[in-house]
Amino acid sequence: MCKKRIFGTFGVRREANKEMNPEFASKIGASYGTVVQGTVAIGGDTRTSTPMLKHAITAGLLSSGCDVVDLGILPTPAIQYAVRNYYDAGIIITASHNPPHDNGIKLVDEYGIGTSDETEIKVEELYFNEKPKRASWNEIGQYYTNNNIINEYITEAIKRVDSEAIKNAKLKVVVDTGSGAGSYTAPYLLRKLGCDVTTINCQADGHFPGRNPEPVEENLQDLISTVKELNADLGIAHDGDADRTICIDELGNFILGDKTFTLVEKAMLKENNGGLIVTTVATSSAIYDIAAEYNSNVISTPVGDLNVARKLKEHDGLFGGEENGGLIFPDFIYGRDAAMTVCKILEIIAKEKKPISELIAELPVYHTVKTKTPCPDNQKEKVMAKIAEEIEKTTEYKLDTTDGVKILRNDGWVIIRPSGTEPIFRCFAETDNIEKSKEIANWGLSLIKKYLE
Ligand code: MG
């Protein structure tokens, strides 16, 4: 049994040309190729190290006897789309929203879903202990390219919404792809939908000169001011690999991912007369309120888009997502998808004939407070166990240990989760009142501190 782990919650991310070098990438390619033994699609984001890693991984795959189809530079969901429809597996080269010096490798299975733990452990064993397969000279894989996926991905996303209604609405949209992979899709998608498009940071550039690839409010100030100056209907931002979508309303307000989720959820349930929703334990109660309105159920999973995608597939769910702007339309792609999210948001604005700020204001109101506190890695388990033990003794609160410790109170909830990559606990609290949420978040932090040595 291999003790050393390479893969985290979805793939591996490291500094380019340090740990994430061609030797490492090539051996990962050969190890995954040994498991797959079929046709593997490969593609990646705009990072400076992506071509280097792509060629190294390709060499590894070919050497294991797999055929490789190079899809070029494109969003993560476009690669997942291609694999689900045409190939046996995929490898995505991206570090999503990490800083420019990082890069990462994600493995996906035949459905385009991130590989299971068992598969990753198999790959790790091949990497560390057993040797990956090296095919004989006449069984080395073939190398192909496919440049059609970007167009097909855009066209297929558009097909799934009322594009005529969107075109007739003639929406003015400002889009900021942060020089990431969305630069190849988002502006074209918007123009095909008849929008009046202004682009910011839509030149692909692995140095990310315009802004940090993470679409948080502080990084989107140019987008916010442009939306206001142009009196646009909507601002859209993506992360580095364009699987997450963040919206700015027509007044220049940053819309939290939870709100976008709830807005799209409402439309999906309305159109489909209900359906199963899947989300993580860390998203807003508003998702449950909307589901209840349409007599629909919500399944909650541990944090991570993979968990949501797997549950959606397993239960044939309608829609799912996370609180960070990553929405999943399982009918299209088993993963967070930015193009479909943009299409859906535009369709909602066009059909409801209301500004997005009004549509957001109609949703259930909850206030989330997100905090964190340091905790050494070796104390995390003990602290969580102690908190759970204390809460279990009370009759006042309910406990949910799907991921970390979630404490359900009459007035709201607080979730305490250890970070998988940093020596910290994250503590999120939500109620219908901002002051109350702050109070409960502090209570959550005090529980952590109480059991820290
Ligand atoms: Mg991403």
Write the SSE topology.
Blueprint: E1 12-15, H1 22-36, E2 39-44, H2 50-63, E3 67-73, H3 76-86, E4 89-93, E5 102-108, H4 117-128, E6 143-145, H5 149-159, H6 163-169, E7 172-176, H7 186-192, E8 196-200, H8 221-229, E9 234-238, E10 245-248, E11 254-255, H9 257-271, E12 277-280, H10 286-293, E13 298-301, H11 305-314, E14 319-321, E15 327-328, H12 338-352, H13 356-361, E16 367-374, H14 380-393, E17 398-400, E18 405-409, E19 412-418, E20 424-431, H15 434-451
Parallel strand pairs: 2-3, 2-4, 3-6, 7-8, 7-9, 12-13, 12-14
Antiparallel strand pairs: 1-5, 4-5, 9-10, 10-11, 14-15, 16-20, 17-18, 18-19, 19-20
Report on this model:
This protein is α/β, with parallel strands linked by helices and 453 residues long. Helix content is 38%, strand content 21%. It is built from 15 helices and 20 strands. The strands form four sheets. The chain has a six-stranded mixed sheet with strand order 1-5-4-2-3-6, with helices on both faces. The protein has a five-stranded mixed sheet with strand order 8-7-9-10-11, sandwiched between helices. Strands 16-20-19-18-17 form a five-stranded antiparallel sheet, covered by helices on one side. Helix 6 (163-169) crosses helix 12 and helix 9 (257-271) packs parallel to helix 10. The radius of gyration is 22 Å and the shape is globular. The two termini are 33 Å apart. The model has no long low-confidence stretch (mean pLDDT 95). It binds magnesium ion. Magnesium ion is lined by residues 96-97, 239, 241, 243-244.
